[in-house]
């Protein structure tokens, strides 16, 4: 596609650290190529700031190919910005128009406290996984991989759930800051596979308990999480989580 | 069990179950009231109302209904408070319309509107039929009562606005209850959504027609 | 040479590992509980090692610079993982996997290590499946395989185009399970900045908490570096932005030899650079070469749209040069061929540094097959195209979408533009059979070590090696060292060695902060990258490498005079993090060029222009260069090379031919 140049106004949340209050600062960037990714546009801005002797904007990012789940910007009121099924790093500037004003905020949730500027602490997700998002199999325990056939359909559904990259967009987009989509993706993956059966009940009970303890809100089924999920994880998984939780409690 | 009820998922299950129970009440309520459309001067309707007002089973269910309503409201309050705490700092720009329906995000507001309506509505009919009449020994039928109350245009407008709120509340609530109870499936969810949408439109519409029909004199 | 003991067990190739396992000293469970192990990095190698060692009873501390161990760059691997399972009944075996790997690596790897890798490959699949890794399956419920990188068997297990992600999340879940139990303490957003040596043994690390900026001292009876490769020395690579050499380089400076630093893998199918703003490159899975045909116009500077260039004016150069393997030649060969065409002026796109990867041919072929299946008589071109597109979409949908997101072009309608990009580094810290570096108690696993891939890695083998090292090798081999260490009590971190190491790290940070120069860290990184890519990239020659060395030295001087790092030390400071990493990359870049200069042969990913056949193919020189070059650090810009001669008892090196 032919390259165009954009001039943009950016309103970016700046916050020195977790303790100090933050505020929006307005920046101008010029000659932004439509071939750039959103983060490359931020690189350009940061280079400008460094050259002016100012502190660059801190933001999380790593793989820049949409799989590590580290990038996390709330762009113009949407988690990862306007494109469907796309992480911030894969959002490209051709989605914007010359003269646009773009507001960039960090994920907002009490469970994801801001560390600096646009960087938030998502360790709550790790805590949820360590509460039960695994199969307890020590290295060396495993039997031959083909001893336990798995219906293709189950394997495919488990994979679709396992595609979650743990970026937290679901929490960020949810009006209640609920982590249900994240938790349900892991619970679903393991509930669908025979390997996950033995710990099926304890897993869901422990993960939900940790989710609640971490201070995430509750799900009101608005579907915002699915709509903003860069991996388009389905809310069907949330229904499965509800089901698993009910059944585990009935036993 | 205690752990279940205090968990976020348990609370939601309570919301869903009480919600479905209230939905079933709406169906009965709507069915009985629709008897006015016989346009027989309220004969059938009054008979139905009489039955509902005197049958001991119905009276018992009525108590359960009240408990259900209170639980639904109480749980909603608790959940809302928790959810507000989960996001102490709000977004400066939030394009929520891009990812969800406004009414799914406004269940609290819609619910509050319905509750306000409900208080007025109970005052209009339930208090009158169950208490006032008994104290005063009056013998106005509910049908007559309706005629009087719906002669006021603002009451009709109020009722019909409340029914719009109810419609949107149901439009999300119906499907949402099934989702919360874990009933979501590629095959059945479209059906649930369709039935839910039909229910959310038809029931409030029939309800809304009642004050209007009375007021306009379509039903005599 | 006396300094290098590869510790390959004696005996027949097939029995080395079995014998080793049954005779290696063990640490009893009670003693394990008082032994602490530090694992730096949480990718496939790090997470699997940390989890497995914790399961054995060791006290493990694991570090990663990302916000969560789940982010490590192993996650980005697309294609798959090899294992000698022979589920397809197509003649695969441990020996074949071993042989393919040694040959693919252009005979620059150790036979003993590679055979062990092939042996444990099957266990990896078992372990991952047991963890709930959702590999692709056939309708019968059994695991599916695909072929990869031109091998003759189907031994690659995969989970769509996200195999690395699924394997990493499996290892991550095992790790988090141990974190939950309390046997692993996880330190996220921590970067290792030095190794602490006591009596010549690795006894701990100095790490910087990247949130507070504070330096911390951590003790361990042994230290495992699982910190990945150093492809980012080229600035532009398919590596993650944070991938770095710092941990390995600090270890190198403390005495760990660096093996084969010049062996870099350039992957042929990446999305080309679109402009100066480019921050990283994105890979398009090698599996695309199964169905795409690579071509350039026959005419120089042909500016027509690719669809307007008629068939007879296209040069399918891989099919022309390598009729036997065609588009499926190994990565190094495909990459060089693309460079050759572009350098000769036949490149496409605005930059002219790209070639076409065209799916039209196979789209139409699939379309005709589908039409037959559906019983459509005389289908129209449009119908065939539509049906074919659906097949292609099912196979590569996610890759095509990613391509479109990045380039804004629809690869169903117009050929992809691709160009080679730095992808993997076969070189790394020199390790012996037990994965120990030349520093006692300091280990290197996964891409961080100089590896089992020789001079070129085959597709779907990186995941295999990372997990083999972590799950199935280190839990055994570390016993050999720790069994002699059971009486060593935890050393308090106020020991002078810790104090001194921390002081040195502090001094380096102060020095960086106090330069207060004029140019950003990225400015230097980009300059380094350009030198490396131009002179130590796909083609290397004596003149270029000599120039590169002096240019890099000048760049180092300039860096330490003129780099600008805003902010302060005691806070989250991303520029300071980058500066430390780039400082190490600069030193490494020089060593890479020295190694490339020393190795006058062409082998695998290392192509010395002086050493090629008349037809322009790589020419190996086994008489002179059949060794691992292991470099010892002697001070800034000064290195001494040690040779580990490679002995081939079983396979006999021959010139690779794909004609």
Give the structure's gist in a few sentences.
By secondary structure, chain A is an alpha+beta fold.
The CATH first-level class of the domain at 267-422 in chain C comes to Alpha Beta
CATH architecture classification name of the domain at 267-422 in chain C:
Alpha-Beta Complex
Under CATH, the homologous superfamily of the largest domain in chain A reads Alpha-helical ferredoxin
Largest interface: A-C, 84 and 85 residues
Residue share in β-strands of chain A = 5-15%
Let me know the CATH homologous superfamily of the domain at 267-422 in chain C: Succinate dehydrogenase/fumarate reductase flavoprotein, catalytic domain
**How much helix is in the residues of chain A?**
25-40%
User: What is the helix tally of chain A?
Assistant: 8
How large is the count of helical segments of chain C?
Answer: 17
C-alpha geometry of chain C: globular
CATH top level class name of the largest domain in chain A: Mainly Alpha
- Tell me the overall shape of chain A: elongated
**Average pLDDT across residues of chain C?**
95
How would you characterize this protein structure?
The complex is a heterotrimer of chains A (251), B (220) and C (659). With 251 residues, chain A is α+β, with helices and mostly antiparallel strands. Chain A folds into two domains: 5-116, Ubiquitin-like (UB roll) (Roll), CATH 3.10.20; 122-250, Alpha-helical ferredoxin (Fumarate Reductase Iron-sulfur Protein, Chain B, domain 2, Orthogonal Bundle), CATH 1.10.1060. Helix content of chain A is 35%, strand content 14%. In chain A, helix 2 (123-132) runs antiparallel to helix 6, helix 5 runs antiparallel to helix 6 and helix 5 (180-192) packs across helix 8 (236-250). With 220 residues, chain B is mainly alpha-helical. Chain B has a single domain (8-83, 102-216), classed as Fumarate reductase/succinate dehydrogenase, transmembrane subunit (3 helical TM bundles of succinate and fumarate reductases, Up-down Bundle). Chain B is 78% helix and 0% strand. In chain B, helix 2 (8-33) packs across helix 4, helix 2 (8-33) crosses helix 9 (189-216) and helix 6 packs across helix 8 (153-180). The longest helix of chain B is centred in the first third of the chain and has 30 residues, at 56-85. Helices cover 38% and strands 14% of the residues of chain C. Chain C contains 17 helices and 19 strands. In chain C, the strands form five sheets. A five-stranded parallel sheet of chain C has the order 5-2-1-9-17, with helices on both faces. A five-stranded antiparallel sheet of chain C has the order 11-15-14-12-13. A four-stranded antiparallel sheet of chain C has the order 16-10-18-19. The mean pLDDT of chain C is 95. The chains are: A alpha+beta (251), B mainly alpha (220), C alpha+beta (659).
């Amino acid at each position: 596609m032919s390259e165009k140049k954009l001039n943009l106004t950016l309103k970016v949340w700046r916050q020195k650290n977790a303790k100090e209050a933050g505020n929006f600062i307005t920046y101008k960037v010029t000659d932004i190529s439509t071939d750039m990714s959103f983060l490359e546009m931020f690189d350009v801005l940061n280079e400008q700031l460094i050259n002016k002797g100012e502190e660059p904007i801190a933001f999380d990012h790593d793989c820049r190919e949409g799989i590590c789940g580290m990038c996390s910007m709330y762009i113009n009121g949407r988690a990862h910005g306007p494109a469907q099924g796309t992480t911030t790093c894969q959002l490209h500037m051709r989605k914007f128009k010359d003269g646009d004003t773009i507001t960039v905020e960090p994920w907002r949730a009490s469970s994801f406290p801001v560390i600096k500027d646009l960087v938030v602490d998502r360790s709550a997700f790790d805590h949820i996984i360590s509460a039960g998002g695994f199969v307890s199999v020590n290295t060396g325990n495993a039997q031959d991989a083909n001893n336990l056939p798995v219906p293709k359909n189950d394997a495919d559904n488990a994979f679709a759930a396992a595609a979650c990259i743990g970026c937290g967009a679901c929490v960020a987009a949810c009006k209640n800051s609920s982590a249900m989509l994240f938790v349900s993706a892991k619970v679903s993956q393991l509930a669908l596979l025979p390997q996950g059966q033995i710990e099926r009940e304890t897993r869901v009970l422990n993960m939900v308990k940790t989710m609640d303890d971490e201070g995430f809100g509750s799900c009101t089924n608005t579907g915002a999480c699915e709509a903003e999920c860069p991996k388009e994880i389905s809310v069907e998984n949330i229904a499965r989580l509800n089901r698993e939780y009910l059944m585990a409690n009935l036993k | 069990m205690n752990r279940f009820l205090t968990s976020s998922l348990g609370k939601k299950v309570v919301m869903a179950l009480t919600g479905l129970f209230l939905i079933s009440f709406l169906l009965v309520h709507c069915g009985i009231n629709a008897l006015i459309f016989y346009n027989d001067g309220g004969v059938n309707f009054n008979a139905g109302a009489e039955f509902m007002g005197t049958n001991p089973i119905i009276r018992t269910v009525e108590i359960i209904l009240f408990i259900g309503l209170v639980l639904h409201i109480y749980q909603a309050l608790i959940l809302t408070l928790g959810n507000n705490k989960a996001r102490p700092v709000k977004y400066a720009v939030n394009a929520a319309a891009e990812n969800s329906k406004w009414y799914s995000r406004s269940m609290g507001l819609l619910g509050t509107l319905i509750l306000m309506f409900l208080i007025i509505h109970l005052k209009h009919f339930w208090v009158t039929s169950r208490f006032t009449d008994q104290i005063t020994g009056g013998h106005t039928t509910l049908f007559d009562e309706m005629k009087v109350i719906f002669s006021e245009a603002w009451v009709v407008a109020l009722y019909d606005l409340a029914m719009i709120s109810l419609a949107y509340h149901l439009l999300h609530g119906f499907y949402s209850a099934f989702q919360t109870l874990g009933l979501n499936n590629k095959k059945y969810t479209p059906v649930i959504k369709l039935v839910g949408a039909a229910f959310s439109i038809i029931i409030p519409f029939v309800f809304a027609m009642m004050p209007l029909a009375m007021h306009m004199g379509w039903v005599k | 040479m006396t300094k290098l003991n590869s510790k390959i067990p004696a005996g027949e190739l097939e029995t080395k590992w079995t014998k080793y396992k049954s005779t290696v000293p063990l640490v009893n469970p009670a003693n394990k509980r008082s032994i602490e192990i530090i694992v730096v990095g949480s990718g496939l190698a790090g997470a699997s090692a940390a989890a497995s060692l914790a399961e054995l009873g060791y006290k493990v501390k694991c570090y990663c610079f990302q916000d969560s161990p789940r982010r490590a760059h192993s996650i980005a691997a697309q294609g798959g993982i090899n294992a000698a399972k022979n589920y397809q009944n197509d003649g695969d075996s441990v020996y074949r996997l071993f042989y393919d790997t040694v040959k693919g690596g252009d005979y620059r790897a150790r036979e003993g290590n590679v055979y062990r890798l092939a042996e444990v490959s099957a266990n990896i699949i078992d372990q991952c499946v047991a963890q709930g890794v959702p590999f692709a399956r056939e309708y019968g419920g059994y695991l599916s395989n695909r072929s990869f990188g031109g091998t003759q068997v189907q031994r690659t297990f995969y989970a769509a185009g996200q195999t690395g992600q699924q394997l990493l999340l499996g290892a991550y879940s095992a790790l988090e399970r141990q974190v939950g139990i309390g046997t692993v303490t996880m330190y996220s957003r921590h970067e290792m900045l030095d190794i602490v040596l006591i009596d010549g043994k690795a006894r701990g690390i100095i790490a910087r908490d990247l949130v507070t900026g504070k330096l911390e001292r951590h003790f361990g009876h042994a230290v495992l570096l699982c910190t990945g490769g150093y492809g980012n020395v080229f600035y532009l690579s398919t590596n993650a932005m944070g991938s770095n050499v710092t941990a390995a380089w600090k270890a190198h400076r403390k005495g760990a030899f660096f093996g084969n630093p010049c062996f870099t893998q350039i992957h042929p199918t990446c999305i080309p650079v679109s402009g100066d703003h480019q921050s990283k490159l994105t890979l398009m899975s090698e599996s695309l070469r199964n169905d795409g045909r690579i071509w350039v116009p026959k005419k120089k500077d042909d500016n027509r749209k690719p669809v307007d260039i008629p068939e007879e004016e296209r040069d399918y150069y891989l099919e022309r040069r390598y009729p036997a393997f065609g588009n499926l030649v190994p990565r190094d060969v495909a990459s060089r061929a693309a460079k050759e065409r572009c350098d000769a002026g036949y490149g496409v796109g605005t930059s002219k540094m790209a070639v076409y990867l065209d799916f039209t041919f196979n789209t139409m072929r699939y379309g005709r097959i589908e039409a037959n299946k559906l019983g459509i008589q005389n289908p129209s071109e449009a119908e065939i195209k539509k049906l074919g597109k659906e097949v292609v979409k099912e196979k590569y949908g996610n890759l095509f979408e990613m391509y479109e997101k990045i380039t804004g072009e629809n690869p169903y309608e117009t050929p992809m533009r691709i160009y080679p990009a730095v992808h993997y580094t076969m070189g790394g810290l020199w390790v012996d059979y037990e994965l120990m570096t030349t520093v006692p108690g300091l280990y290197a696993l996964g891409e961080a070590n100089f590896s089992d891939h020789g001079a070129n890695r085959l597709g779907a083998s990186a995941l295999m090696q990372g997990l083999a090292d972590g799950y199935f090798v280190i839990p055994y081999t570390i016993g050999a060292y720790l069994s002699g260490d059971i009486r060593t009590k935890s050393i308090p971190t106020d020991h002078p060695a810790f104090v001194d190491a921390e002081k040195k790290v502090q001094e380096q940070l102060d020095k960086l902060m106090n330069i207060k120069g004029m140019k950003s860290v990225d400015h230097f990184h980009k300059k380094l990258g350009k030198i490396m890519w131009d002179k130590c990239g796909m083609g290397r020659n004596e003149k270029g490498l000599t120039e590169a060395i002096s240019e890099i030295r000048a760049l180092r001087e300039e860096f330490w005079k003129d780099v600008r790092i805003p902010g302060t030390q005691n806070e989250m400071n991303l520029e300071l993090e980058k500066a430390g990493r780039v400082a190490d990359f600069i030193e490494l870049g020089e060593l890479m060029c020295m190694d490339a200069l020393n190795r006058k042969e062409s082998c695998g990913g290392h192509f010395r222009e002086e050493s090629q056949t008349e037809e322009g193919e790589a020419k190996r020189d086994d008489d002179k260069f059949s060794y691992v070059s292991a470099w010892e650090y002697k001070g800034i810009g000064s290195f001494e090379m040690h040779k580990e001669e490679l002995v081939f008892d079983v396979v006999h090196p021959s010139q690779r031919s794909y004609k």
